[in-house]
């Protein structure tokens, strides 16, 4: 599903932010991505959703070497990836419902089915009454939930979330994690960057640990379930 | 009516207000150039069809003392030569009163054959399929009455055609230049829009939008603005052409053609806003696609 081989990343001519990153995420796996601030969690996710190009090494997504993709192929691949951005990245001039429906609209899907789907999902994240509101009228936590709804509406094969519970209270954080687990049960591969130790502890999933510019994959802290991790370690 | 929201909010840009007017002024100029080209074309067609198959023979009045009877004999000799020439289908001698009438727009009324030594004019129609040998005919006429001129209008018509062609060429250059200026303006606006809406476009890309999807947003915007500008500009051009046409109609004295356009001519003018909208749309699309393709 996701394979990194000796991947390095640096900005321009600067020093390497990540070096020798190699790991493999199996289809249907669920990982937390953790590490101290500035360790490169967001950068790693950005390479996974093709916003950053590695300065070295090879990234394979869905069996395709991403360096070989044309612009259109990259767009089609991104449709299979749902991303919850740390800064939400909602389009400020579109209503909540239009923002959530955006991935479907881009994929050419329109009509009543889409509206039904959006309504259902907004109810799930507790924002049904904000259907027609503009994002700016919502709180940070509410905007984050809009961003999550937008990330999952296309039933992506890969869901990447950058601190998706950073702006919500514990009760909603747990609820959102259950939503991600539901998607995972339906086959979606999930990677969630977080530095909430309680969440990592509560939900028993393997950990991708970032530190000192490299990456380590660890079995779930509870060790009660079989880890779906295959490759690993540097 | 509320306009449906677009993913890239181009309708709020400054281009929404200034681009249609910029386009309108350019379409106005193109419309006037097009109209003048059409008028000149009509003029040429009118004169050409009016004169083809026509010759004019001038019998000069050389001897001012000659009697009317001698004069008539000269003209009869010329008419005899003409009627005896194969290919000539008719020869009409214009009476002095008719010539005076033809000259009225230039010289005013009251011209008579007494006050000016007017030549006798004979209008000759020839069979276009089997035209007579003009050189031989000219010599025969010279022999009949020395100084007689045979005018096939070609020299005059040739100069007129040269003039008309240069007017049409200038009109075409104006239309091309105006079109090029419009293309540059639209391309500039599209690039500015891409830069201004960079964050929204980045989000759309990350969610899986293809370049064509982004381009569609811009081309719809450009189509709308181009159509609006084209309609305003064509309206302004009509508001200029129609009063001038009316003035020509009112001063109808035979020197200028009436502005009696038929459907194809009006159609060309009506196509102007459509063509403008298409040009702006295609320009925006190609600009956006080529700019995005150069991005990493």
Task: Provide tags for this entry.
A: 234 residues; alpha/beta; 7 helices; 10 strands; B: 4 strands
Notes on the protein architecture:
The complex is a heterodimer of chains A (234) and B (296). In chain A, 32% of the residues lie in helices and 24% in strands. Chain A is of the alpha/beta class and 234 residues long. In chain A, strand 4 (56-61) and strand 5 (64-65) form a beta hairpin. In chain A, helix 3 (96-106) packs across helix 4 (112-124) and helix 3 (96-106) packs parallel to helix 5 (140-152). Mean pLDDT of chain A is 89; it is low at 223-234. In chain B, helix 1 (15-51) runs antiparallel to helix 5 (154-196), helix 1 (15-51) packs across helix 8 (263-293) and helix 2 (68-83) runs antiparallel to helix 4. Chain B has eight helices and four strands. The mean pLDDT of chain B is 86. Classes of the chains: A alpha/beta (234), B alpha+beta (296). Chains A and B meet through helix 2 and helix 3 of A and helix 6 of B.
What is the count of helical runs of chain A?
A: 7
Name the chain pair whose interface involves the most residues: A-B, 26 and 18 residues
Sheet-strand content of chain A, in percent, reads: 15-25%
Order of strands in the sheet with the most strands of chain B?
A: 2-3-1-4
What is the gyration radius of chain A calculated from CA atoms? 17 Å
Helix content of chain A: 25-40%
Beta-strand level of the residues of chain B, as a percent range?
Answer: 5-15%
- Strand-pairing-aware structural class of chain B: alpha+beta
Shape of chain A: globular
Percentage of residues assigned to helices of chain B:
55-70%
| Unreliable stretches of chain B | none
Which whole number gives the mean pLDDT of chain A? 89
- Oligomer state of the chains in this structure: heterodimer
> What is the makeup of the main sheet of chain A?
6 strands, mixed
Integer average pLDDT of chain B: 86
The total strand number of chain A stands at 10
Sheet/helix structural class of chain A = alpha/beta
Please give the alpha-carbon distance between the first and last residues of chain A.
19 Å
Form type of chain B: elongated
H and E order of chain B: HEHEHEHEHHHH
Distance between the termini of chain B: 40 Å
